[in-house]
Prior knowledge:
- The protein is of the alpha+beta class.
- The chain folds into two domains: 32-110; 119-227, Sandwich (Immunoglobulin-like), CATH 2.60.40.420.
- The chain is built from four helices and ten strands.
- The strands form two sheets. A five-stranded mixed β-sheet has the order 3-2-1-5-8. The chain has a five-stranded mixed β-sheet with strand order 4-10-9-6-7, with no helix packed on it.
- Strand 6 (167-170) and strand 7 (178-180) form a beta hairpin.
- Helix 2 packs antiparallel against helix 3.
- The protein is elongated.
- Residues 116-231 form the Cytochrome oxidase subunit II copper A binding domain.
- GO terms for molecular function: copper ion binding; cytochrome-c oxidase activity.
- Keywords: Copper, Electron transport, Membrane, Metal-binding, Transmembrane, Transmembrane helix, Transport.
- The chain crosses the membrane at residues 12-35, 47-71, 83-106.
Amino acid sequence: MGAAPQSDGRGYGYxxxxxxxxxxxxxxxxSLSTLDPAGPSASLVAGLWWAMLIGAGLITAFVLIxxxxxxxxxxxxxxxxxxxxxxxGVGFVMTVLVALVxxxxxxxxxxxxxxxxxxRVTAEARQWGWTFTQPGPDGALLETxxxxxxxxxxxxxxxxxxxxxIHSFWVxxxxxxxDAVPGRVNVARLMADAxxxxxxxxxxxxxxxxxxxxxxxxxxxxxxxxxxxVSGGDDE
Length: 236
């Protein structure tokens, strides 16, 4: 009888590694995932996240390579210690960090609101809900609670404030966070690429009802404002 093939365990290790990655990859999508952008601002934020991940990976890999080289190098041989420390260690790390910081400033400048005729919306936070004021179907201002209506493909500036404590406005698939501070107005620029619904939430702990302080952004085709008598979105 022939001997049964022996396994060195590498196949099991590979399968285990793949199985461990599946839950991580599943977290890259979803209604609250910043890695599944649905607008230009969110795409910039996601790009910055990936750039930081790649930069951290490059630094980690470089350090591990240096450790391996130093470990295998014969004693008494090799470059001067200052070359390794300054020329490679400090120089490479600083190059990557400066590039990441520069890219971060560039992203921040790109998502700043500009005075170019964007749709103006106000968001007022309170414990534990949101009140939005936006242009309605006839152009008149419309106030809604916990539901924001915006047209697709059109930039909109959200003037964010609060009436009691500090909150934070965040729609992960449309852009970054912006604090809602009592007595102060902060402005965030967002835009949705296509019609649909996106979940938003308060990203700053604000009390016992913080976990339920959520809202919905309804994105509609320009010129096709939803019928609120059917959707029930206007609950003034």
